[in-house]
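EI: anyone free to look at a 80-residue chain?
SC: sure, send it
EI:
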Amino acid sequence: MQRFQLQGEFIELNVLLKLLALAPSGGAAKAMIAGGTVMVDGAVETRIRRKLRAGQTVRIGEQRIGIAAAAASSGGKADQ
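SC: here you go
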């Protein structure tokens, strides 16, 4: 299983497919999703901009991607 670490609270499904080069373009990502070839947490997902959050799993054929939480930042000031 491949792991994808979030940079914020969520990532949209179509963006994830493009970032990981599972789709060569935005149009290809949309076609894959609309065609029913993408699953999220075991169910076919047809929402192109589905928000993926930590703990979810995306599957495309034999490829599985686990969504991991964003790394905690250590640069902020502590509350006083």
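EI: The longest strand covers residues 63-68.
SC: 👍
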